[in-house]
Amino acid sequence: MKKIDLIATLCFLALPLLGADSSSPAPANNGRKVEKPINYVLTKPDPLVGDWQGTGGVVDFTTNENAVRKAFENVCAAGLKTMCARPTPEALPLVEKLLKEHDIKVAIHDHGPTDLYPTGEDAWKAVQPYDKRIGLCIDVGHAWRAGGDPAAEILECHERLYPVHLKDSRGPKGTGTKDPSPVIIGHGALDIRAVPAALVEVQFQYRADFEYEERAEDQLPGLAESVGYVRGILAGMA
User: How far is it, in rounded angstroms, from Cα 119 to Cα 123?
Assistant: First the structure.
């Protein structure tokens, strides 16, 4: 069974382009209040085969080629290798064209029951006709709220799974609500234990990031508890 290591890297999603690796400090926020979730990098891939690069996004794409091209140029200029995005279905041929030009991955982010791609499975179906560098960013909380099974989606879609966003939610599941109802991992209704088990089973090589959106004025304690909870799961799997 392949081990998943926890790497203490904090990334602030308030920044327009997100990038972190195991040798770089967290990007500074220049004194600005951080109002977006804090990410904590979970997985460190094998350096011989893994893609241990930062991720930009989530970026919305339409068929406006100038805007999409600019996003690709920004991501490449930042030295990033993967971009989380939410392209319309009509924009996917354009995304494929540009990723071939720039040689980066684009991961479609599911965002719950009111989104264009409610679950990872919905994104998986959408990317099938296209270059394999168009893949998925499975957000386990949003997928679950939309009625999906995040662990099963990881197992099914792992060949094109790039980032994973880890969170927990109170729900409800399978309704049309937009509220993610975020909670500390382990306090919600998701089967969290099944998620790292699935990542280990598929020998996941990319990024899994903690997202903690509750208590925006004091995120670190909840983030720390979330990380500790998953550490305990991984320790029990060793």
Answer: 7
pTM over 0.85: no
For tokens 């990872």, name the residue: 120
Q: 164: part of which helix (H) or strand (E)?
A: strand 161-166
- The SS3 of residue 173 is coil
Rounded distance, CA 171 to CA 21, Å? 32
Contacts of 64 (CB under 8 A, 6+ apart): none
- 112-160 pLDDT, tens digit per residue, is 999 999 999 999 999 999 999 999 999 999 999 999 999 999 999 999 9
Superfamily for domain range 10-17+36-233? Divalent-metal-dependent TIM barrel enzymes (3.20.20.150)
CA separation for the pair 122, 61 (Å, rounded): 17
Rounded CA separation 45/134 (Å): 20
Task: Please state, in angstroms and rounded to a whole number, the distance separating the CA atoms of residues 106 and 55.
Answer: 9
**CA torsion through residues 19, 117, 189, 178, sign:** positive
